[in-house]
Amino acid sequence: VLGNPQAFGQVFNVADNSALSVGEVLTSIAEAYGLDLGPSVPFPNATIWALLTPFIDNDSAFDMVRQIMRQLWRRVQARHGISSPLRPRVDRSALFYVGDDSIVVASALQALGWKPQWPDFRHGIIDTVRWYQEHGWVPRIDRDSQVKMRDANKQRGIAYNEQLQGVATLVGEGNQALSLALKFEWPTIPRLLAVTEGHINGKITIDRVVENATIEGIATVRLFPPFEMNYEFGFVDAAQSAFRFIGKRHLRGPMPLQSISRLDGHIINRRGECVATAAAEIAAMGEAVPLRSDLRKLTPV
Predict the structure, then answer these.
(1) pLDDT tens across 17-61, in order?
(2) What residue ranges do the domains of the chain occupy?
(3) What is the CATH number assigned to the segment(s) 156-292?
(4) In 51-90, which positions are buried (b, 16+ CB within 10 angstroms) versus exposed (e)?
(5) How much is the pTM?
(6) pLDDT tens across 106-149, in order?
């Protein structure tokens, strides 16, 4: 066409053979990304035009929308780890295609032998989006990419171990040595002024009662104000009798630092009867290991 003398000095429309509404164009772009928009609800052009009319001659409104779009686009690029030369914007002239039915006819250009490589926008936009994605110009929004991004953005939690030694006072039987080996997993790092819930598992030993019984339960912690950490877990003895431990560590005077390391609680049987009281001190605490919020261990960095 460029070498055709009939094209010299002429202005031609460039368009494919599909006549689509603005809504159909936007839907086609969304579908090319793999987004399911659900059923569409048509709006009369007059309604859309009435909503847009106040902004047609408002330069400050257009500038504000463009600034918001640039900020959102920068966030999208940062979230997906891409660097794109594309700069989304809204042009005033584009609004006139919303207000009236307009069909761009490229018959004059086609008469000179030109034809679009993709006669239908709905097909061509798919290849366009794929090319943009392959070159890192736009993010991938397929399921696998979304899962990877969600995993990457998950909050980190922590896991650590506690060793506690103390005494269990059995009702009618006196004191017996108590040993707890606990592992804590917090899906998110505990924060001030918020109660965080985590998971406990490990082993419990009470002389002449139970030895290395497996325990499992929950813990809650509030860092401030004041510090309070609650323990609740269950275990069974050799006779398969079920018990539940309920205890607490919390800040109290006059020796607050020592009070934080002391766990006080009681043990109840399956009928809800208290069969023992317990007091233990933290003997050792393992190094915290970072976790994802789904409790999968991470390699410390």
Answers:
(1) 888 877 788 888 888 887 777 666 666 666 666 666 666 667 777
(2) 5-152, 156-292
(3) 2.40.128
(4) eeeebeeeeeebeeeeeeeeeebeeebeebebebeeeeee
(5) 0.49
(6) 889 888 888 888 889 888 999 999 999 999 999 887 666 666 66
